[in-house]
Write a structure and sequence with these properties.
Number of helices: 10
Organism: Micromonospora purpureochromogenes
Order of helices and strands: HHHHHHHHHH
Shape: globular
InterPro entries: UPF0014_fam (IPR005226)
Protein name: Putative ABC transport system permease protein
Keywords: Membrane, Transmembrane, Transmembrane helix
Strand content: under 5%
Subcellular location: Membrane
Structural class: mainly alpha
């Protein structure tokens, strides 16, 4: 057994390929519509992680390079959420909840001195928070727009009763969009009982004590809740104001 969770070698590569093929096959046979996307996502993840592994040492040595890398992460996250929500030109509005939700928390942690201004600390923290904001934005945006499409008659009825357009849209889509917080809530509620998340396990494997690992994981989970709550609220607001709309 190596010092990490997995033994790195040819068997691991074969296992990853088999798992990817199984996931894609199940999605295809089950007509979920994501078989090809699963395979593409797995290949992209392998290529991207390999590239980052080669570049990370140079990036973390410079604060400017770190800032540029964080900006790239935000741009990719916004592009991913924008395509998932609208698939059109208005998708760039997804930048607002992702950046506002994640980078405001990162900035607050820096100002409070809880995270040192070093690339080796900033990149993983920013990556976790940006990823959470991206997921929340995608889920909230899709749920809100789907709800509006299916219940547009209720929006028109609310308008007929004298509600402002923004208030009429919020009345319909806000409860559905709020469900985007459920994954983060469930993970936080069940941590240690159902799952042992990456930050906790990674610190234990790295030699940290259980208390330090637990505090770090708690920080990650609570930070994600704050980031995702901000992202969901801003996404719903953008939908209500007509900034995010489905592609005609």
């Amino acid at each position: 057994m190596s010092s990490t969770m997995l033994v790195v070698g040819p068997k691991l590569a074969v296992t990853l390929a088999v798992l990817t093929a199984v996931a894609a096959a199940v999605a295809t046979v089950g007509r979920l519509g994501h078989g090809r996307q699963i395979a593409v996502a797995a290949v992209r993840a392998a290529v991207q992680l390999a590239a980052v592994s080669l570049l990370i040492a140079a990036i973390v040595a410079s604060l400017w390079a770190t800032a540029a890398f964080v900006a790239v992460m935000c741009a990719v996250a916004a592009g991913t959420s924008g395509r998932r929500i609208t698939g059109g030109a208005r998708g760039w509005w997804a930048t607002v909840p992702i950046v506002a939700g994640s980078l405001s928390v990162v900035l607050g942690l820096l100002l409070a001195g809880l995270v040192p201004a070093r690339g080796i600390a900033l990149i993983p923290v920013a990556g976790i928070l940006i990823g959470g904001a991206m997921t929340a934005t995608s889920l909230a945006g899709r749920r809100a727009l789907d709800e509006l499409t299916g219940r547009w008659g209720e929006v028109e009825a609310a308008l007929a009763l004298g509600l402002l357009p923004r208030d009429a849209v919020l009345l319909v889509c806000r409860p559905a969009a709020g469900q985007a917080l459920i994954p983060a809530l469930d993970q936080t509620r069940t941590v240690g009982l159902v799952t042992l998340p990456g930050a906790f396990v990674g610190m234990l494997l790295g030699g940290a004590g259980p208390l330090a690992a637990g505090i770090t994981q708690l920080f990650v989970l609570v930070g994600l809740l704050a980031v995702e709550a901000v992202a969901v609220v801003l996404t719903v607001e953008l939908v209500a104001r007509g900034r995010l709309r489905p592609t005609p």
